C-alpha cells in the first residue's frame, strides 16, 4: 500500500530523464530538422540542379528546399537561389507531385538553364499563366564599358569563311594519262581503270586539277576540298559486283597519294600554286575504317553485339572498351579469343601503311553494321574494316598520320564518318591537331569540320562544343532549305536559326558551319527537287537562299562531276550557273532576292494554269499541317524529315541473308555501303541477294540507315 503514492513521481522522473537523454543524443548527432510536406497548390522548382540547392536528389517534386514562397500578389510564388555554374534543366511541379507540372512556355518541355558563373537567380511562378520565369536577382544597373566583352559578336574561327570547290579528283581532269592504271599491270580488275565504266577509275588526277586552277580561281573559290587522295585498294568485289576505289574511301596507305591520282610531289606543287593565288587546299580524311582486307575464319559477317559476346582481354576477362577508351588501362587483345569473330589477315593483305594498322586486334571485328544501336560505331561499313578507335594505339597512329599531312601544307580537314567513331577518340584526336597546328604552315587558320549525318542541331552540336573540332557540315540547313524550296512553309527555316544557340560557346558558334544544298552522298539539289514543278527556278531559289543566309559569312560548297574534257566534247560549258545544282557566286549578275523569288515562284498566278494553282495551294496547306521541321528542331527531338519515300522495308526484300553473300559487293561508284550513300535507300532485289543493286533515283537525305547487307565479295586468292 505504501508503494503506490511514490510510483507516479518515479515514472515521471524516469520519462523526463529519457526525454533529456533523447534530446541530448539528437543534439550530439546533429539531427536534421524535420522536412515539412509541400502543401497543395504550392510550386516547387524541380530539375537537375536540386541536389546543388539542398535537396536529396534531382527532380524531386516534394523537396521543401526548392519550394517557392508566396508573394504579395495572389497566385504568384518566388524564391532566389545561389546557383552554381553549369548546364541545367528546370520546371515547376505543383503540390509535391508530378500530376501538374509546367516547363518551357508553360508546356511539357524542360527549361534549359546555362549558368556561366555562380549567380543568384530568382525563379517566379505565375499560376494564371502557368509560366516559370527565370531572372538574375541583381541586374547590375546601367550598361557600362565593362559589359562590352559580354556583348561580343559570335566566335569566328580564323580559318573560317571559305567558299569551297569540292573535287572528286578522278572525275575532274586527266592531266597525265600515264598514271591512269596507277602503275599496275593486268586488266581493269587488277589496276581499276576503265573509262567506259563509271564504277572504275576514269583518269582524273592532280595534274589535271592543277592545270585548271585558273578556272577555279575565276569562279571566286577560296578553298579546294579534295576527296580522299591516299593510296586505295584498287578493286574490291568480283564479277558484276567489282568496282574500283576511285572515290578514295578504301585506304591501304595513309602516307602516299594514290598513284592513279599522282604523287606527293605533284600534290605539293598544287598546294604551292593554289596558295600563291590565295586558295586553300583541304583534305577529306578517314579515321573510322580502312580497306576490306580482314576476313573472319567463321565465314560469317552479321553483326554480333557486346551483350551477346563481350570483348575479352588476353586473360579471358570481359572488358568494356567504351569505358576504357583512350585510357592507359586499355586491355591487350588476343586475335584468337578476344573477339566474336576470329579475324584473319592473309599474307598478301599485309599491306597497310603505317605498318601498325596490319595488327588485326586494332579493329572491332564484330561484323557488318546494322546502322542502329552500338553497331553505328562498332560495326563494319559493309565489309570495310572498322578501326577500334577506343584503343589509344589507333588514336596515336591517326594523330601521327594527319599531323604529318598538316606539316605537308594542307590547310584543313573534312573529317569523314564522324558519328561512327567513339566520342572519346574525337576529344583526343582533335586536341592533338590543335596542339600541333602552331608548328604548321596553316597555323591557327587550320580548320576542321566533321561529317555528322543528321539534320538536328541537338546531336550535331556536341561535336563542336565538346571536342576541338572546329565545325560540322550543316545537314540541318540542307534539310530545311530543300523543304523550303519545295514549297513548305518557312517554319523549318525559323526553327533552324533558333537552334543556332546549341553551338554557342566562348570558342564556337553556328557562324562557321559549312552549308550546302546537295553533295556527293545525296546528289545535287536539282535531283532532290526532281519531283517538283518549275525545277530550274526552285533549284536557283535554293542556292539564293543559301547565299542570303543571315548568319555571317557562311560557307558554300560547289562540286564538279564528270571530266572537263567529256563535258566540253558534249558542247556544254564546264559550269552553267543557270543549270539546276549550280551555285551562283555572291556578286553574280543573275542573283535574285530570295524572298521575292519565292513569291514569284509560288504566287505568279498569271503564268500558272488554274489546275496547277489548285495543286500548289493544296500542297501548301498540307505543308502547313505536316511540314513542321522547325518544331522538331526547336524541341530537340530527333525527328527525321523524309524528302522522298524510303526504300523497301527489310521484311519486304528478297530472301537470301547477309550470311549467304560473299564479300565485296561494292557496286555504287561513290560509297560502298547503304547507310552512307543515300542512293542505296531503294534497292532492286536479285535472287539470293536481299540488298540488290542500288537505285540512283531514290534519295532519303536525312535517314542514315541501310539494310544489314553482306560483306564484300573477295577477289580470287583473297
Which structural class is indicated by helix and strand composition? alpha/beta
The number of strands is: 25
Oligomer: single chain
Largest sheet data = 7 strands, parallel
Can you describe what's shown?
- The protein has 718 residues and is α/β, with parallel strands linked by helices.
- Helices cover 24% and strands 15% of the residues.
- It has 18 helices and 25 strands.
- A seven-stranded parallel beta sheet has the order 22-21-20-15-10-9-23. Strands 1, 4, 5 and 6 form a four-stranded antiparallel beta sheet that branches. Strands 2-3-7-8 form a four-stranded antiparallel beta sheet, with no helix packed on it.
- A hairpin with a 6-residue loop joins β12 (235-236) and β13 (243-244).
- The protein is globular.
Amino acid at each position: 500500500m505504501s508503494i503506490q503514492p511514490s510510483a507516479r513521481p518515479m515514472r515521471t522522473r524516469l520519462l523526463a530523464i529519457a526525454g533529456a537523454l533523447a534530446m541530448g543524443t539528437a543534439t550530439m548527432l546533429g539531427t536534421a530538422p524535420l522536412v515539412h510536406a509541400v502543401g497543395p497548390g504550392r510550386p516547387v522548382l524541380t530539375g537537375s540542379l536540386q541536389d546543388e540547392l539542398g535537396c536529396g536528389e534531382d527532380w524531386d517534386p516534394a523537396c521543401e528546399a526548392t519550394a517557392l514562397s508566396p508573394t504579395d500578389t495572389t497566385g504568384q510564388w518566388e524564391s532566389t537561389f545561389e546557383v552554381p555554374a553549369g548546364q541545367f534543366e528546370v520546371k515547376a511541379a505543383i503540390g509535391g507531385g508530378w500530376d501538374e507540372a509546367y516547363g518551357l512556355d508553360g508546356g511539357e518541355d524542360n527549361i534549359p538553364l546555362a549558368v556561366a558563373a555562380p549567380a543568384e537567380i530568382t525563379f517566379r511562378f505565375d499560376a494564371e499563366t502557368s509560366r516559370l520565369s527565370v531572372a538574375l536577382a541583381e541586374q547590375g544597373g546601367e550598361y557600362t564599358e565593362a559589359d562590352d566583352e559580354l556583348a561580343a559578336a559570335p566566335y569566328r574561327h580564323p580559318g573560317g569563311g571559305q567558299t569551297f570547290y569540292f573535287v572528286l579528283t578522278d572525275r575532274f581532269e586527266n592531266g597525265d594519262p600515264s598514271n591512269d592504271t596507277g602503275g599496275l599491270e593486268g586488266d581493269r580488275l587488277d589496276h581499276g581503270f576503265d573509262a567506259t565504266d563509271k564504277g572504275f577509275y576514269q583518269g582524273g588526277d592532280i595534274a589535271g586539277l592543277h592545270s585548271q586552277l585558273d578556272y577555279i580561281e575565276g569562279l571566286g573559290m577560296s578553298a579546294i576540298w579534295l576527296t580522299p587522295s591516299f593510296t586505295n585498294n584498287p578493286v574490291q568485289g568480283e564479277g558484276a559486283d567489282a568496282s574500283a576505289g576511285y572515290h578514295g574511301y578504301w585506304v591501304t596507305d595513309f602516307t602516299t597519294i594514290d598513284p592513279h591520282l599522282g604523287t606527293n610531289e605533284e600534290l605539293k606543287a598544287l598546294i604551292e600554286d593554289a596558295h600563291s593565288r590565295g586558295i586553300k587546299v583541304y583534305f577529306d580524311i578517314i579515321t573510322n575504317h580502312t580497306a576490306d582486307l580482314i576476313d573472319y575464319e567463321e565465314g560469317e559477317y552479321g553483326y554480333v553485339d557486346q551483350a551477346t559476346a563481350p570483348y575479352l582481354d588476353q586473360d579471358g576477362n570481359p572488358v568494356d572498351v567504351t569505358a576504357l577508351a583512350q585510357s592507359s588501362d586499355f586491355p591487350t587483345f588476343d586475335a584468337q579469343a578476344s573477339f566474336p569473330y576470329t579475324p584473319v589477315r592473309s599474307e598478301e593483305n599485309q599491306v597497310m601503311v603505317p605498318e601498325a594498322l596490319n595488327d588485326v586486334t586494332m579493329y572491332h571485328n564484330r561484323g557488318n553494321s546494322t546502322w542502329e544501336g552500338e553497331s553505328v560505331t562498332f560495326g563494319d561499313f559493309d565489309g570495310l574494316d572498322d578501326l577500334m578507335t577506343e584503343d589509344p594505339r589507333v588514336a596515336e597512329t591517326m594523330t601521327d598520320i594527319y599531323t604529318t599531312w598538316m606539316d605537308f601544307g594542307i590547310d584543313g580537314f573534312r573529317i569523314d564518318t564522324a558519328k561512327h567513331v567513339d566520342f572519346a577518340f574525337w576529344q583526343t584526336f582533335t586536341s592533338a591537331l590543335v596542339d600541333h597546328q602552331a608548328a604548321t604552315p596553316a597555323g591557327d587558320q587550320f580548320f576542321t569540320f566533321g561529317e555528322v549525318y543528321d539534320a538536328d542541331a541537338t546531336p550535331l552540336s556536341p561535336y563542336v562544343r565538346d571536342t576541338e573540332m572546329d565545325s560540322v557540315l550543316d545537314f540541318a540547313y540542307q534539310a530545311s532549305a530543300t523543304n523550303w524550296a519545295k514549297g513548305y512553309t518557312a517554319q523549318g527555316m525559323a526553327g533552324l536559326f533558333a537552334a543556332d544557340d546549341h553551338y554557342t560557346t566562348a570558342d564556337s558558334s553556328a557562324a562557321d558551319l559549312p552549308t550546302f544544298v546537295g553533295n556527293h552522298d545525296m546528289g545535287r539539289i536539282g535531283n532532290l527537287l526532281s519531283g517538283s514543278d518549275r525545277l530550274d527556278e526552285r533549284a536557283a531559289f535554293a542556292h539564293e537562299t543559301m547565299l542570303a543566309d543571315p548568319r555571317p559569312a557562311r560557307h558554300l560548297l560547289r562540286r564538279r562531276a564528270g571530266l572537263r574534257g567529256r563535258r566540253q566534247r558534249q558542247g556544254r560549258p564546264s559550269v552553267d550557273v543557270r543549270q539546276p545544282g549550280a551555285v551562283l557566286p555572291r556578286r553574280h549578275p543573275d542573283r535574285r532576292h530570295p524572298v521575292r523569288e519565292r513569291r514569284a515562284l509560288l504566287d505568279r498566278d498569271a503564268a500558272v494554269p488554274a489546275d496547277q494553282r489548285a495543286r500548289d495551294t493544296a500542297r501548301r496547306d498540307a505543308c502547313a499541317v505536316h511540314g513542321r521541321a522547325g518544331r522538331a528542331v526547336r524541341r530537340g527531338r530527333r525527328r527525321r524529315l523524309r524528302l522522298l519515300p524510303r526504300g523497301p522495308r527489310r521484311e519486304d526484300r528478297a530472301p537470301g541473308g547477309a550470311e549467304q553473300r560473299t564479300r565485296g559487293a561494292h557496286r555504287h561508284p561513290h560509297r560502298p555501303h547503304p547507310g552512307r550513300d543515300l542512293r542505296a535507300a531503294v534497292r532492286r532485289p536479285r535472287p539470293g541477294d536481299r540488298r540488290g543493286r542500288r537505285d540512283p533515283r531514290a534519295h532519303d537525305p536525312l535517314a542514315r540507315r541501310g539494310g544489314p547487307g553482306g560483306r564484300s565479295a573477295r577477289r580470287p586468292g583473297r
